[in-house]
Design a protein that fits this description.
Shape of chain A: globular
Largest sheet of chain B: 7 strands, mixed
Number of helices of chain A: 0
Structural class of chain A: mainly beta
Distance between the termini of chain A: 41 Å
Radius of gyration of chain A: 14 Å
Oligomer: heterodimer
Helix content of chain B: under 10%
Order of helices and strands of chain B: EEEEEEEEEEE
Helix content of chain A: under 10%
Number of strands of chain A: 12
Distance between the termini of chain B: 37 Å
Strand content of chain A: over 45%
Order of helices and strands of chain A: EEEEEEEEEEEE
Radius of gyration of chain B: 13 Å
Structural class of chain B: mainly beta
């Protein structure tokens, strides 16, 4: 079955620290990959997406992610986090089947200390 | 663009009653909408895929008679939780896909509490 795995459930960082959140997926073919963010009390927002081309994608708010096909990974990075990045981050994947139904990872809760 | 609106944002109902949640795409036509359920501190679990004008496709383990989905128009899908029980209390989120694009856009969610 298709699945998405996020390595870290909780991450605590100090402001200005660098961030890397891991994501691996188990789809066999062509995939579309996403990172979503959910700030406290708010709905999901798309941070960035990859579906083809340059495997290093840049998103909003200084986030970027790198697609490594050989490792089935799509890790999220940010060089210097801010207190306002405190949120939950979800990696998600679809493969274009089932009407592009999207499967989510378990999420990583990030807390940034001021 | 690509705004998805859910209504209501919060609802409290008595055990045994039914509750309807609406999901609207405000500025685009959505041939496909998705319904998710999110338990506290957990991820989004896909419940079903809703296609305009046809029956919804439910994920394994989701009771189709309990969670009725209707997608009667290109801008509206509804989820009805029938004979609700306290264990149905959860956060329900819909998303809609813009035709020709790979990602879906999410509504703000509906918090259902069954007492």
């Amino acid at each position: 079955a298709q699945s998405v795995s996020q390595h870290n459930h909780h991450v605590i960082l100090s402001e200005a620290a660098s961030l890397e959140l891991g994501c691996n997926y188990s789809y066999g073919g062509t995939v579309n990959l996403f990172w979503y963010v959910q700030y406290p009390g708010q709905h999901l927002q798309l941070l960035l997406k990859y579906f083809s081309g340059d495997p290093l994608v840049k998103g909003i708010k200084g986030f970027e992610a790198e697609f490594i096909k050989s490792k089935f990974s799509f890790n999220l990075r940010k060089p210097s986090v801010q207190w306002s990045d405190t949120a939950e981050y979800f990696c998600a994947v679809n493969d274009g089947t089932g009407g592009f139904k999207t499967i989510f990872g378990a999420g990583t809760r990030l807390f940034v200390k001021a | 663009g690509a705004v998805v609106s859910q209504h209501p944002s919060r609802v409290i109902c008595k055990s045994g009653t039914s509750v309807k949640i609406e999901c609207r795409s405000l500025d685009f036509q959505a041939t496909t909408m998705f319904w998710y359920r999110q338990f506290p501190k957990q991820s989004l679990m896909l419940m079903a895929t809703s296609n305009e004008g046809s029956k919804a496709t439910y994920e394994q383990g989701v009771e189709k008679d309990k969670f009725l989905i209707n997608h009667a128009s290109l801008t509206l899908s509804t989820l009805t939780v029938t004979s609700a029980h306290p264990e149905d209390s959860s956060f329900y989120i819909c998303s809609a896909r813009v035709q020709g694009r790979t990602e879906a856009f999410f509504g703000q969610g509906t918090r259902l509490t069954v007492v």
